[in-house]
Amino acid sequence: KEVETQTKLANVVVLATGGTIAGAGASAANSATYQAAKVGVEQLIAGIPELSKLANVRGEQVMQIASESITNDNLLQLGRRVAELADSKDVDGIVITHGTDTLEETAYFLNLVEKTDKPIIVVGSMRPGTAMSADGMLNLYNAVAVASSKDARGKGVLVTMNDEIQSGRDVSKMINIKTEAFKSAWGPLGMVVEGKSYWFRLPAKRHTMDSEFDIKNIKSLPDVEIAYSYGNVSDTAYKALAQSGAKAIIHAGTGNGSVSSRVVPALQELRKEGVQIIRSSHVNAGGFVLRNAEQPDDKYDWVVAHDLNPQKARILAMVALTKTNDSKELQRMFWEY
Ligand SMILES: NC(=O)C[C@H](N)C(=O)O
């Protein structure tokens, strides 16, 4: 009996959404020129016979898209399916195969709204499976290994790329041509080597079980848009986004989320009209925006995104706005999550 429980494999469901990990190119030399979202989940799983030693793995095709085309409705659909599976007694862990372009957004979204301590791992690849030295197979093997491990429970949504275990909150795609594409300004949580996880640190921010957000209570996501800042920027994009109905605008700012003097008056005006203004930074290695530095946020009633990059700030703003439109509450959430 004891031997039986020791060797009992975890049940892991692979939810496939498309991306390069399901991509196919014309020749093995095509590492960057290929079509994403071509290969079905059954074929992905069948391509790695070693998975059967890690877990009882079954697949579900939730969608088949390149991740740059993901919509808020897609996010909600995926989030609801993850929640159903997490509630199921015969599921121990969930793996989501995903395109890498918006992987960090989906991972952060799930990290905020899934009320479970079961492992949820989001994984992609930088090269299609048809390419020489394709990375998807090992990334997926590692994802299933982490999803089936008890040690991964309660650590929030995780990402396994390039042998590293990253926090879904922190991780970001930093370069688009290397397999070493995903980094976090604060470092990975661990490593996965030959199917075994090695942990070094824990996420400090609220997530999953400890989150005040629940996918089951979210009917729709409000419109939150991003405007990019640079030298000689005008206020045209900000005004247009507000006019098209944005409830919040993420300012993808320079440096410490700084705002051009050409844009400040428009943002003050938009805030008076009820649009939330959230200052983030688009610096490459990870921004760190502080309140009332660069701009008087208290005076203007603006919010800062702290270390969240613009695309992650959009995710938190959408989820937060389903609960409150109070800027002080929004700011609290931006510190806590
Ligand atoms: N490497 C990738 O997965 C890129 C692809 N465009 C996607 O996000 O679906």
Structural notes for this entry:
- The chain has eleven helices and 14 strands.
- By secondary structure, it is α/β, with parallel strands linked by helices.
- Strands 2-1-3-4-5-6-9-10 form an eight-stranded mixed sheet. It has a four-stranded parallel sheet with strand order 11-12-13-14, with helices on both faces. It has a two-stranded antiparallel sheet with strand order 7-8.
- Helix 5 (103-113) runs parallel beside helix 10.
- The chain is globular.
- The N and C termini lie far apart (43 Å).
- The protein binds asparagine.
- Asparagine binds at residues 19-20, 36, 66-68, 99-101, 124, 126.
- The active site is at 20, 100.
- This is Asparaginase.
- Keywords: Hydrolase, Signal.
Write a compact overview of the structure shown:
The protein has 11 helices and 14 strands.
Strand arrangement, major sheet: 2-1-3-4-5-6-9-10
Bound molecules: asparagine
Helical percentage = 25-40%
- Anisotropy-based shape: globular
Low-confidence residue ranges: none
H/E element sequence: HEHHEHEHEHEEEEEEEHEHEHEHH
Number of helices: 11
Using only C-alpha atoms, the radius of gyration works out to: 20 Å
Structural class: alpha/beta
Mean pLDDT: 97
Protein name: Asparaginase
Active site: 20, 100
Domain Asparaginase/glutaminase C-terminal: 223-334
Domain L-asparaginase N-terminal: 11-199
